[in-house]
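Two proteins were folded this term; both appear here.
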Amino acid sequence: MTFLKREQLKFLLVNLLALAVLQPGAVAFANFDAPYGFLKDLSAWLEAYVGTIPLVLIYAFWNREKLGKKVIGGYLIFAALLVSFSYYISKLVVADINPNFSFKDFLILCPVSMVLALMLFIPSLIHIHRLYYPYDLPLIIAELLVSFAALLLYIKLRKS
């Protein structure tokens, strides 16, 4: 990652931290009354992260001279793909409950999911032993990898 500038590494760290911090609370929110399965937990995590995209974009545009057009353009493409994928997964999850689930509903749900995931972050860490179900193993692995990557990136930034 020596090809990235310091500000670009900080931008990557912001995104990794958002992913890492939001997952436990999103999974707790997804399973607040019953286990609904892997797709529900994944969709809750992705919805919460999509809720942070406007904030990340504000940060990116604020630092656009340091980040560069390529990074911002790449992030916009990534965000569009992630929003599309997240909407598709969310629509699959709620199809039986609400067949009229629209993209507008999804866009309203994402910031709400982000706030709920942040509110449930500390309580979910306290009860982490009861948070995940066996079908959530891929999410646990993803959380560990994202957290480890964020830690390594933080250490790299501290050294430079």
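Next, the second protein.
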Amino acid sequence: MESHKKIILRMELQIGQLIRLVANLNERLDALEQEERDIEMHKVLQVKRMSRI
């Protein structure tokens, strides 16, 4: 029975690690998407400035 408890504990720890991994990947993806939006907005502003000249 003790080995079953160890297996369950190990699985719980692995699930926790997977949850943290997914959360970190989501944060990285959010940051990349925000950076992409910022770059696109910068391009739009540059085009608007150039059209005024």
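The two ends are 79 Å apart (CA to CA). The chain has a mean pLDDT of 92. These notes refer to the second protein only.
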